[in-house]
Design a protein that fits this description.
The structure is a homodimer of 267-residue chains. The first copy, chain A, has 267 residues and is α/β, with parallel strands linked by helices. The first copy, chain A, has a single domain, classed as P-loop containing nucleotide triphosphate hydrolases (Rossmann fold, 3-Layer(aba) Sandwich), CATH 3.40.50. Chain A contains 11 helices and 5 strands; from the N terminus they run H-E-H-E-H-H-E-H-H-E-H-H-H-E-H-H. In chain A, 37% of the residues are buried. Chains A and B meet through helix 2, strand 2, helix 7 and helix 8 of A and helix 2, strand 2, helix 7 and helix 8 of B.
Chain lengths: 267, 267
């Protein structure tokens, strides 16, 4: 299982860190464990929905082609779409830009009983915004603490937050981007801007490293997921979510005796 | 496969109509066909998402405990949650009530590329509203045509609409409601109001029949789904959706040649 990013320690994000760690299973064992984990998450999701005490927020960040879409598809495969909502954050609209950067994010927070999945998030406001110089340094530098305060507020109000950075190597990204151009069923995923971002690889690494360290908190930890190998990536994300959810002591709410007695009145 | 409700013909909604029709498969054959259909819908959903030309709207209506939740869970099981959004319509809030009844519905219409699933819908505004006498007859009577015009507008603007009425028998509903009280993991689904609604069975039948006949249109047909047997219900819904989606001639968008050539610049 993954351990949270420790803000007091340096954070390595080299190509080697993108490969499956030694402790993860391989081959059939990997796939069996993945199937079990995905199916357990499906069971947990049902209880979360019935229990209605917690909202679960899973944030996925990562470079282009790091596998955010694939992670969503596979990890939440056994979840009922009724209890699961994905929000993809794109470049902000004119209306969104005329608000503070957390406005649209707050609006998209899942309600209690739901699992919300953010495909990108407010972290773009300290990553792409910083790398591209869209706002002055003073502005983005203040955001780490604002984000920590915002997430703290959420976790104090029944939102359980898990944040995953899907870490791919430079070679794996090249491989994936090439596939988008050579596989006709993947052309639609290609964005010329991805190649521009690729040229800024090191700047992004610095921005990600700062965001992960400054915003990995007790209440909303960041996990770095070695993401070069898809099934391993899916297993690590799923097992980390499951371990957190198990701690919530979820249960199906029981009806009161006078309600249960109504069973005799049904004709 | 199901045929649309014909507005010019009388519509039978007896208990017998809730049983699996003769033409549907049974046993292993049923389950194999269901697996295939669900998996085909998953494939179709991927192309819809990539293609981005159509929004798909699936409306589910039915009495309490008719299996709306179970249908969502099973039919859309192979769909990526990222391309699939479920909206459950509850009793309107104070804000929603201060708007026209289609306001909240319009807002929830899926965008192109998405499958939207409505668990209940604006049809409640001609069903429960009518049965409970929440507005005068003149008001709800005018709504059938308003709904037809609204749905026509949507279908003329890239929204593909399929409407399913999950038809259960009176015995099957009793069975399901009893289970909610005897199975501790289902208590949370029980609502005492369901028993009140059950007493109004015939009034609801009249209201459903009118809604289905008056609003089954060329552009947005209603289907009555025999819903006493879950796998049969799921098969009929899935195959009907698939047949409609196949007609859309969906395809993965191809990139232009100058974009495809960028593959040689990736290092």
């Amino acid at each position: 299982m993954l351990v949270p990013v420790d803000p007091r320690k340096p954070l390595s994000l080299t190509d080697a860190d993108a490969r499956p760690p030694r402790f993860t299973p391989k081959g059939d064992e990997l796939h069996e464990r993945l199937d079990r984990a995905v199916s357990e998450l499906g069971d947990l999701q049902e209880v979360i929905y019935a229990d209605r005490r917690f909202a679960i927020l899973v944030i996925l960040q990562g470079r282009d082609a790091s596998g955010k879409d694939g992670t969503i598809k596979h990890v939440f495969n056994a979840c009922n779409p009724q209890g699961c909502r994905v929000k993809s954050f794109k470049a902000p609209t004119a209306e969104e830009l005329s608000h503070d950067y957390l406005w649209r994010v707050h609006h998209a927070i899942p309600e209690r009983g739901m699992i919300g999945i953010f495909n990108r998030s407010h972290y773009e406001d300290v990553i792409v915004t910083r790398v591209k110089g869209l706002v002055p340094r003073k502005i983005w530098e203040a955001r780490y603490e604002q984000i920590n305060a915002f997430e703290r507020h959420l976790t104090e109000n029944s939102v359980v937050i898990l944040k995953f950075f899907l870490h791919v190597s430079r070679d794996e990204q090249a491989e994936q981007l090439r596939e988008r151009l050579t596989d006709p069923t993947k052309n639609w995923k290609f964005r010329a801007g991805d190649l521009e971002d690729r040229k800024l690889w090191k700047d992004y690494t610095v921005a990600y490293r700062d965001a992960l360290r400054k915003c990995s908190t007790r209440w909303a930890p960041w996990y770095v997921v070695p993401a070069d190998h898809n099934p391993t990536r899916n297993l690590l994300v799923t097992e980390t979510i499951n371990a957190r959810l198990r701690k919530l002591k979820l249960h199906y709410p029981r009806a009161a005796q006078e309600v249960l007695d109504l069973v005799h009145t049904i004709r």
